[in-house]
Each structure stands twice: as C-alpha cells, then as structure tokens.
# Entry
Amino acid sequence: MALINIATHEIHCKIVYYGIGYCGKTTNLQYVFKSINPSVRGELLSTATETERTLFFDFLPLDLGTVQGFRTRFHLYTVPGQILYERTRLAVLNGADGIVFVVDSQAEKFEEIAPRITELELKLRRMCKELGNFPFVMQWNKRDMPSALPMNVLERYLNRRRVPSFEAVACSGTGVYSTLRAISKRVMAQL
# Structure
C-alpha cells in the first residue's frame, strides 16, 4: 500500500518485479539505474551471494515528479526467483502497489512459469488482495533468444487476465521503460 507522507508531501509506491530465477528482473533494474538521470534516482542496493544473483532484493527509488502537489517516488524491488526463497518473495511482496511479472520467453523455461504465477496469486490472496484487481503487467523478456516462444503462445497460456504485456530484451533496454511506464500509470490510477 502506498505510503503518503503529508508532512513532506510525498507519495511512496512500491513496484515489485516478480518471476523465475534469471528471467531478467535484476537486469531491468540495472538498465533503469544506468540509463536514468542520477538526480532522479537513488542508489541501487543489491544483496547477492557468490551463488545467487539476487538473494533478497534490489531497491531503486525513482522520483517521478509531482501529483497534485505531492512528490511521487517509486521504489523498485525484485524478488529472488530461485524456488527455495519462497518466504523471501512473500516478504518483498508485502506492501507492493504494483507487480511486473517478468517472463523468460525461452521454450525451455516455459514449464517453470505457470506455477510461479499461481504462487503469486496465492501470496496476494494471503495479503487479502486479488491479482485481477491489482496493478499488474507482464513483460516477455529475452525476445532475442533463438528459442523464444511466439508471442501468441505466451499470451494464450500465461496472460490469462489479459493485462498489458510488453516484449523486452532487458539487457539492451528494449521494452524496459514501456513496462515501467505502464505499471507506474496503473499504480497511480489505483491510488
């Protein structure tokens, strides 16, 4: 839930990038961090180990101007995608105002994705939220890979709610900002 600070005239919103391990969640945040003007972003904090890319979260606050006199700041987080970090995903998801589900488009990853979407739905229900009424978009990442599945297959089998979805190659920045703009607009509309 967005934090509104009347004293400082700020609205803080939390956007969580969710998905399986190594699908491009962290890569999205790294691209935003390196390409955005340093005056409108904070530091990129990342907790990693030798064996895992992101153990806990990446956090990147973005200042996106004002809304009715309130400065809006978006805090971008990623969850660890590896299966054994399920409880950590729940902790990071808590308090989210919007979710970007990042999908690795490669055929060999397809079977891992649907259970993760179901997991997300269950975690939100535990927090008394429904994915169908929640700011949510999907990003079809790694579209440049030779084994990337056709868009119509991804849409048909993974985007049951018909939410906005975006093709992406996060390492080059393709689709990164269109995804971020879409989820930011949906979060602001929900507020």
About this structure: The beta strands are 3-5, 10-18, 45-46, 58-67, 70-78, 98-104, 136-141, 165-167. The mean pLDDT is 87. Helices lie at 25-35, 86-93, 110-126, 151-158, 176-190.
